[in-house]
Amino acid sequence: MIKIICVGKIKEKYLNDFIDDYKTRINAYHKIEIIELKDSNIEIESKEILNKLNEKDFNILLDIKGKKYDSIEFSKLIDNTFSNSYGTITFIIGASNGVTEEVKNKCNLRLSFSDMTFPHGVFRGMLLEQIYRSFKILNNESYHK
Q1: How far apart, in whole angstroms, are the C-alpha atoms of residue 111 and residue 63?
Q2: Which of 21, 119, 134, 143 is 20 to 30 A from 4, alpha carbon to alpha carbon?
Q3: Are 124 and 19 in contact (CB under 8 A)?
Q4: Average pLDDT for consecutive 10-residue bins of the chain (145 residues)?
């Protein structure tokens, strides 16, 4: 299973449509769940994230200071993670103020898409698109380029 834990709701219909489209596409390959947490402050948000994390899962924090992968490397990360007996990959998207050190320490990997900052809803869609692209790559299906 793939879980995405994120702080905040997406209010814009066009972004929700974008996100729902890729969520549907991913479901053809793998079960996916998006867990939205309420905006608050960094301590409360981080506590809620920690309540949703399972230490048996492979937890990936989306972090501007994290490691960067290209799409092929990202698909290999997903494949290797599932091959190494992790039943679930959990992606964590914190709010604009980030997460506490405790959340960072509970993660197996910190992943960065860019040194740039993106709107939350756009980034959520980008993450889903890259997950979908990974499954297309892993199944040798056209889409990647």
Answers
A1: 6
A2: 143
A3: yes
A4: 97 97 97 97 97 96 96 97 93 95 97 94 97 97 77
Among residues 69, 64, 81, 73, which one has the least CA distance to residue 30? 81
Dihedral angle over CA of 74, 36, 16, 41, nearest 10 = -100
Residue whose tokens read 């040798």: 140
Q: Mind listing the pLDDT tens digit for each residue in 39-66?
A: 999 999 999 999 999 999 999 999 999 9
State the fold for domain 2-138. Alpha/beta knot (3.40.1280)
Count of CA atoms in the C-beta half-sphere (13 A) of 125: 16
Among 55, 72, 140, 74, CA closest to 112: 74
Question: Whole-angstrom Cα distance, residue 31 to residue 26?
Answer: 7
Domain residue extents for the chain: 2-138
Predicted TM-score (pTM) of the model is 0.96
Q: What is the spatial distance between Cα 63 and Cα 65, in angstroms, rounded to a whole number?
A: 5
